[in-house]
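Field reference: "sequence" (input) and "structure" (output). Example, MIP18 family-like domain-containing protein:
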Amino acid sequence: MDEQLKENLMGALEQVIDPELGIDIVNIGLVYDVELDDDGLCTVSMTLTTMGCPLAGVLTEQVQMALSDIPEVKDTNVNLVWNPPWSKDRMSRYAKIALGIR
């Protein structure tokens, strides 16, 4: 997968807003990796801010919807991972400023 396509995929994922924090899942640092195979299967490895997050299903659906607009993506698989665990260190500078975290 080329860099431009990966950028497009990450850009689409920036449309997915975490309902609790009000910031997109990319800037919060929840997305660990995005891969697209030759058959058009996009695999998103991501985590949640807490295990057992009640929004897991909602976020998974939103990720699938966001990526469905990209022509190269035929299907999306969301792989929830817990290792490495999420921490505020994964947040972008933008997210930290928006949430008032130093």
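The helical segments are 3-13, 25-28, 56-68, 93-99.
The chain has one domain: 3-85.
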